[in-house]
Amino acid sequence: MNAQHLSALVSARLCHDLISPIGAIGNGLELLQLSGGAGSAEIDLISDSLGTAMSKIRFFRIAFGPADPEGRLMVDEMREVTSGIYNNRITVTWDIAERDIPRSCGQMLFLTLLCLEKGLPMGGQIVVTGGSESYAFSINARKVAPPAEFWNHVLDGVELDGLKSDGVQFALLRGELERSGSNLDVNFGETEATARLDCKVPQTV
User: Fold this and answer.
1) DSSP E strands: which ranges in the chain?
2) How far is CA 117 from the centre of its chain?
């Protein structure tokens, strides 16, 4: 078992263990709403924060957890999860032909989203299109500022110097691309960017 697979299992375990107590908080919130035990402003604040936390855990479980080569991921679930996170400064729109896609492709799409987000300091709109394991990202923003060192690692395998937690998605994406034999092309402009992911599903042994 390599280090990347082990870290994926750790991520999945953390997400699995956290989702239960956070869900319990949601149940408690519903009881408060029914009993009128808190003001509407307070309830709304807690409810919004809880929804974001739930969406982030679901997102991280897909992006950082192990991806079963035979597993499938519903596009509606991807849409639901990202809408709970990207609904203000950054928005994500899914226009994918299929109802579901290989889970490993969904993982790489989510990792790519995290990498692209890093280059949108003022926010922007991301549209994901495609199907049949070939997907395109179209980005419009007031400013696009991709971190060159990270993208050199993803696209060309240039070693990263002093990787920190805020850039782990780049290392993970590079690892998934190499492991699966998938291909990613990215082009950046000053206010727009495009990316194309040709996903290959890893073969089971």
Assistant:
1) 72-74, 90-96, 100-102, 124-131, 134-140, 183-188, 192-198
2) 10
Structure tokens at 21: 């107590």
- The SS3 of residue 201 is coil
Can you read off the two tokens belonging to residue 69?
């080569």
The DSSP output letter for 159 is P
| pLDDT tens sequence across 1-14 | 455 655 655 555 56
Tell me how many helices (H) and strands (E) the chain has.
6, 7
Q: What is the DSSP letter of 190?
A: S
In Å, what is the CA distance from 139 to each residue of 1, 94, 99, 113, 146?
37, 12, 23, 11, 12
Beta bridge partners of 102: 72
Rounded to an integer, what distance in angstroms lies between the CA atom of residue 106 and that of residue 44? 31
Three-class secondary structure of residue 139 per DSSP = strand
The pTM score is 0.82
CA 191 to chain centre: 22
Backbone φ and ψ of 14, nearest 5°: -60, -45
